[in-house]
Amino acid sequence: MKMKPVATAILSVTLAASLAACSSSTNEPEQSAQDGNSGSAAQPPKAVTLKGMLFGDEPKDLPLVLEEFEKQTKDTLNTKLDIQWNPVSDHKQKVKLMMTAGEEVDFVFDAEFQNLRELIPQGAYAQLDKYFNNDEYPGLKAAFSPEFIEMNKRYDDHLYTIPFTQYFYDIPVVYIRKDLREKLGFSEPITSYEELQQFYEKLLESEKSITPLAVKGNGGFQEIFAPDRKELDTVRPLNLGGLVYYVHLTDDLKQVQNVVAFGDAESEWAKLPAPFNTMKSAFPQYDKWAEWSKYLEKDVLSQKDQKAYFMSGKAASFYGTISSYAADKKMLQETLAGADLEFFVFKEHIRNMEPQAIATNYKSNNSVAIPVSSKNIDRTMKFFDWMFQSRENHDLFEYGIQGKHWEPVGENQLKLLDESDNYTFPGYEFTWNPNMIRTPEDLDETAKKYLEYSANADTYYAPVLAKFAFDTSSVKGEFANVQSKADPFIQTLKAGQIKDWEAEFVLINKDLKGLGLDKIREEIKSQVQAYLDAGGQ
């Protein structure tokens, strides 16, 4: 399937970058957006402190970066940031509670896997359309193309987030201790699941104190062993609240025939074309996850940070994505003497860097939303406009203070300095943009090729229903009940802890129907049909 021209335009910007490198106004007079690095004779706006909520660990040197930001912009933005950092496991619930309590906050990290599906229909977040493609916000206009913004609008054709991405797919990999691989007699890098399993078996035999594979408890194997097969236009998966619903369309892609969910009767699955005509063939990875669970740590469900577990020397490999390779390699070498890092791209079509190997909806997975209750919406958007006005502004937050944490190399590379460990900022929560990518100067050629591949327009294609977004507002009670019941089961499944998963699915399906599964199913049918009738593809 060929990509739409719109998507090609978006990704051509990404490629160039990677290779060359409801408003609630404050009623204050707004200053024209300008580069915060230069002085201005204009009167600065009234001082404001913007409160935000992100997740993870606060970078140690963030106060120094904020101090530098305030110094550079005191005569222009006159803005301070006060960021609350939530634990990863608590962020979703804390945002929800904060919004319910009406607590004042000006920006929050939110995403499809967090609260966006629930909070946007409730009117919790401000519409941000007017701030983009607007000459009064030149930074946002330059960094976010009209096509990219269009792709990230919601079901009501409005934008409620600032979408962050570098590439439209961060290639998943298994990171491997190269030194351990060589120690155990594997002379060449691992290039197949079979070789990876041989490595793990040797580890179980020879290095009993080391866990072969580290994964996060609530994520489990994730995409490992996911089917690497050609998409079917007539059978489209929708992942809603952790559950996969298969939408079966007619051959002309104009009518919804039915929607099949986990645990449905065999007769329902049999209506789908192969390989989706049985649960076993639709989800072949589940048997593999159960088989490979012996390579995980015993208490895997309580593991919150698989990378830290790996970096401590307790695991020989961990699940990750390629964008963090340079930083992870540096961290490992500094943490464990003699250790080195390499990666295995486990999806064959991607490993071979084949064209149109990755399906995408061209939406970002990560974003910041502005609560409609904020009294500083315009000022918040002025800050983000400033950040994207120049590489210097952007890089201050993404990489830290130039000369202290990092230094630029050419137009689109960087060198991390000794103090960079004191400033590791989660750019995917706040700063990522395809126009402002820097890659480490010492990145090896293999990693560079995969990053270039992930930025290449021809790598991607838009499948049927790529732009469809499900609106939960009419089934929010049922959706919440089904999700709360399914979440623990799905988490256990992903960690390979359920061997007879088909029988378990059938049992839980009965419970989910009692909680509103069939009502959700009918709503999916109705919304997809309306989407198709309106000309959606």
Automatic annotation (TrEMBL):
Residues 465-532 form the DUF3502 domain. SUPFAM superfamilies: Periplasmic binding protein-like II. Residues 24-44 are annotated as: Disordered. Residues 1-20 form the signal peptide. Coiled coil: none annotated. Residues 27-41 have a biased composition (Polar residues). The keyword Signal applies. Keywords: Signal. The keyword Coiled coil does not apply. This is ABC transporter substrate-binding protein. It comes from Paenibacillus donghaensis. The lineage of its organism: Bacteria, Bacillati, Bacillota, Bacilli, Bacillales.
